[in-house]
Amino acid sequence: MPPRTFALDLNRTSNYVCQSCIASIGRARPNPQPWLARNASNSARAARRQRAPMTTKQLEEQQAQRFQEALMREAQKGEPAEADEQGPTEKLDINYFNEETEGQYRRLRDGAEFGAVSGGIDSEISEAINDLEQKMVQTIEMLNSMEKIGGSEQDKAEELRKQFKKILRDKYKGKTGPEGESYGVLRIPGFSGVRQRAVANLNSFLARDSVVKGGVPKPKDLFDCWKYYSAARSALATQWSNVPREVWDFLWMILSHEGEGVENPNRMHHLYVLAKDMQAAGVVLRDSQQLLAIEAMFLEGWQEEAIDAWKKAVVTLGSKPETLKGYYELGVRMCSLHGDTERAMRAANTLLKSSSPPNPRIMIPIIRALAAKEGSAEEAWEVYRDMRTLLGDTMKIEDYDEVIACFLAVNHVEHALQAFVDMMFSGPMDIRGKTRLPTLVGNHFFLGKWLKRLIGAGDLDGAYKVVVFLANKGVAASPIQLNGLVGAWLRTETADNIEKADKLAWAMIKARLDFVELRRRAAAMDQPTRFIPRDGEPAPEEDFICTTRATVETFSLLAENYSARGKHDDLEELWTAFEMAELGPNSFMINQIIKSYTESKGPQAAVAFYEQMTKKRHVRPDAHTFIALYNTLAVNRVAKRDQQLEADDAIVSRQFFQDLVKSDWKFDSVDEYTYLPRTVLFSMLKAKDHAGMIVAARVMKELFNYAPPEQLLIELAAGTATLRVQSKRNVERIMEASRLIEGLIRKHTQVFADLGGDPAKMTEKEKENQLCAVFEELVLVKAHAQNAERTAVNNILATAAEEMGVYDIVFTRDPAVIRKYRKVMKDRNVEDDVE
């Protein structure tokens, strides 16, 4: 560990030291004060003399105030070189001392000796360096000796020398940042011991070869950099002067990185903290660092202080060509967010009139700030017009979207509509202030394009404002457009948006019920009728009266949401409204009601509702309907079951399967094709209906062209309960099931080979037949009937097939019946012929 040192700064021209000072220095102190053991600043010593303790909030405010004052001083000072040139002309005489032993001090010769003593490295590091130097000297001497021998030894020495140089060049060339700057070997000296472990970890991070590899920090570099630096800050604060400028710049380069594919969400907070630490260490911020530090201060909540620092930097940062653009762009953004639009406009004009290539898009923050002010919408519109003129043909769709979002956010829908018209039509078309919109704009097709773009961008509230505005202009949105908005609101799953979706959907349902009532009255009267909404009562104050009628999709969206949230009473009310709407029930609504009845009223009510809808009202079910029916079984709902429940569920499951076969429906997706057979087989397995499982698998093979995959076979062999809890026993059961299925597959593969087949050239049909055979043998193993006579098994299967109503499909294999009940899935080739 380097000797402890301190510097005594005397602002005088004489070398005289008073006798009392000499006596105090020479006197032995058994317990020296801690601030004598390190380089303590005047401000630190003054802080220690304060007797009254400060709260955490006061400390933070004091530190923030010092940081802000330092930034202002940096802005006024400019470059460090200029500051040195303008420094004091009077030369200071400084005496340095070193504490040799406890209480004993020695005066150092000059500043060079003080720098050597105070900047010394740790003893263990010094020893390692000396050892490395000796090895390098020995290596060079060995190479020189080999070269003197000549011949092959000389060639070998030359090759080794090239490799040695390459290793040194590649290993110790340092790190290169994104801008190509080189940082060399990075290390913070002067910290050692167990208590300085955090600094050692930071040094280890800085020494990594993988850090900033290729000049671009990786996400792990950002995370680890802040992790190790934040942990070492308290230790570094005791000796800020030991941190080299190169390390500060390297930390800044990493923490300030904001590139593509690299997320740095806490970038400004990290820079704010780092900049304060650099100011505390007396490190002069570079111009680019000052700009980022001011922006970080603004985003951390010190807005007025950041703007003051920005104003004072106009002489330095605002006058240099390399920082002029960034300086004024930062001013425009900060002043606009702070509400000082006049100053923002002046900064934008200065930037646009400068010799640097102007970017007119810097006016977008001004448009947003002006539009948010009361009575300045027209001024914001004029700024938009100026920006559009400056951009010309280079104005992009994204620029229009920004402007439209600015006006929609503050409910200036008319200006937003005009900007959208500018984007859609090349020729001038002014629609502001008109009570009736032109035909090209005043139609639901144009409205649909705008709504689609707003919903796709996630501006749902803006889309609703557009719907209300155009409805008051006589342009009603189509049901599919409002259904899209309702669905987007519901998908956010936030309370406010769900409430908005519910309100709009029920307004559409009310419009549908009013239409049905008008149609019913018109049919009952000979004279033409005029419909008055809400039975002649005055309409309450609302955003608008929705005239767009609900469709089946509207009811389906609400039904799915109510079912997922368990709002069974609201779903019951929705079903009543659905019947009154005279739209005709569909399978999706029925499925939601079945699931709701299963949870709220019980499985009997759910099955009764299904019977009523399919048998009496002739509603065609789908695959999800039967999935919902199988989920009403006790074996799928009750954790603890008895034999009577299993026997009852076995009977009911066979009835459900008969309806599944005889109903006219088709597969719509691969998910249905995968999940429905799995639900059927697992339900019968839990009910211990092994004969029904084999019959159902054979039927699905004929009608669906379905063969149980190997993964499903393993799950069936292990049981569903083993997959819910990842315990040691469950994992063992999965392994046992895997070994069982592998053994059965090997057995059938050997049979196939004995019959003259080539297992390596099995067709897809042969593989499916093999999986079906393995499945049936697995079921016999589960039923403990693997050694039963084939005739007895066939008799049991025949009885089950008759009860399930599929005997002519499984045993007689009537081609006409199979063709009649075949379920064809989209995007899947199913043979039309029957073997």
UniProtKB/TrEMBL annotation:
An example Gene Ontology molecular-function term: mRNA binding
InterPro entries the UniProt entry points to: TPR-like_helical_dom_sf
Signal peptide coordinates: none
Domain of life assignment: Eukaryota
UniProt region (Disordered), positions on chain: 29-60, 74-96
Gene3D superfamilies the record matches: Tetratricopeptide repeat domain
Name of the protein described by the UniProt record: Pentatricopeptide repeat domain-containing protein
Record organism: Sordaria brevicollis
